[in-house]
Automatic annotation (TrEMBL):
This protein's record includes keyword Amino-acid biosynthesis: no
Native source organism of the sequence: candidate division TA06 bacterium ADurb.Bin417
Keyword flag Transmembrane: yes
Cofactor: NAD(+)
Main localization (coarse): Golgi
Enzyme class: lyase
Species classification: Bacteria, Bacteria division TA06
InterPro entries: NAD(P)-bd_dom, NAD(P)-bd_dom_sf, UXS-like
Pathway linked to the protein: Nucleotide-sugar biosynthesis; UDP-alpha-D-xylose biosynthesis; UDP-alpha-D-xylose from UDP-alpha-D-glucuronate: step 1/1
Protein name: UDP-glucuronate decarboxylase
Recorded topology in the membrane: Single-pass type II membrane protein
Keyword field: Decarboxylase, Golgi apparatus, Lyase, Membrane, NAD, Signal-anchor, Transmembrane, Transmembrane helix
Length: 323
């Protein structure tokens, strides 16, 4: 197969590229390098079946050409991280909404299958865990910038389903739950790389709020496995799927575990996130996926424990990765 991966130089996209090439697929990476990095593709950059194009999903002629040349598309290009969305609200909205619409239009015209990466963020502050795909979406006020991200991704899903209904677009929507792994950067706010770096450098580990908010972190290799199986599953077409793990951890406990694994003496400090984000921040208390549909469709079971994923990430940082 020939795959187009938008955002292919990003954290998840680069892992997906590394997974598809050895399986004999051809991959074209489209990335504007706003948050992606060419060095994420260092290990595969000379692979004969890899083509890398530095351009934007806002460039429609380029998109149309690349979609036409591919058999299927993974759409991972998006504004990354809470920090980006709060600090660059306009660009984030344009990328997520306009860019995705361009791509859906091109895929519908060329009749190409597309896997659209959405996010667990769309469940918003619904506290009715675990979140099943048909659960209500509960978002906050429009004056709180964070919700623009959830809203833009929900809108992407609406567009995708509308293209499926009216233009016969074969689309698979995935909602990713807190993906972690080697090469993820803490620059855009993600908690695990931030805590690992703080612990390894002996600096205070910055827990926002009381630390009793929880997440289910999912190792990127499990996410990639699910993406690879979904794209090949005819039963997945037209569906919305959570991809995540069931291992729930509070942020306070996460900080302690990372500190122990790093053999660090960093103090744990509790911060008001408004010290880091001047405006636009609101936190979610719990986020747990219901994985019933994913399991029933592709037989998915998350395989990598949080402990193992954290060890891999710490080893990656110790190997001298720049953040
Ligand atoms: N968080 C934290 N300290 C940090 C960064 C994040 O305590 O330096 C918390 C954040 O408030 C949230 C959790 O960690 O409750 C996960 O944050 P992240 O931005 O990684 O993902 P998301 O909020 O999208 O789940």
């Amino acid at each position: 197969m020939r795959y187009l991966i938008t955002g292919g130089a990003g954290f998840i996209g680069s892992h997906l590229t590394e997974h598809l090439l050895p399986a004999g697929h051809r991959v074209t990476v489209l990335d504007d390098l706003s948050t992606g990095r060419l060095k994420n593709l260092e290990a595969v950059k000379h692979h004969p079946n890899l083509q890398i194009l530095v351009d934007s999903i806002l460039n429609r002629p380029v998109l149309e050409r690349l979609v036409g040349e591919a058999d299927a598309v993974f759409h991972l290009a998006a504004a990354v991280g809470v920090r980006t969305v709060i600090e660059q609200p306009l660009q984030s909205l344009r990328t997520n909404v306009e860019g995705t619409c361009n791509l859906l239009e091109a895929c519908a015209a060329a009749r190409r299958k597309i896997v659209l990466a959405s996010t667990s963020e769309v469940y918003g502050k619904n506290e009715n865990v675990p979140f099943a795909e048909e659960n209500d979406i509960v978002l906050g006020a429009t004056t709180i910038r964070r919700w623009a991200y959830a809203c833009s991704k929900a809108l992407d899903e609406f567009f995708a389903l509308a293209y499926a209904a009216e233009a016969g677009l074969p689309v698979i929507i995935v909602r990713l739950f807190n993906t972690i792994g080697p090469r993820q950067t803490g620059r855009y706010g993600m908690v695990v790389p931030r805590f690992v770096r703080q612990a390894l450098e002996g600096r205070p580990i910055t827990i926002y709020g009381d630390g009793r908010q929880s997440r289910c972190f999912t190792c990127v290799s499990d996410v990639i496995e699910a993406l690879g199986r979904l794209v090949e599953s005819p039963a997945a077409v037209g569906g919305v799927f959570n991809i995540g793990s069931r291992e729930e951890v509070t942020i306070e406990d996460l900080a302690r575990r990372i500190r122990t694994l790093c053999k660090s003496r960093s103090p744990l400090v509790h911060l008001d996130p408004e010290q880091d984000y001047k405006e636009g921040f609101e936190d979610m208390r719990r986020r747990v996926p219901d994985l019933t549909r994913l399991e029933a469709t592709i037989g998915y079971r998350p395989r990598v424990s949080l402990e193992t994923a954290l060890k891999q990430i710490i080893a990656d940082f110790k190997a001298g990765r720049e953040d």
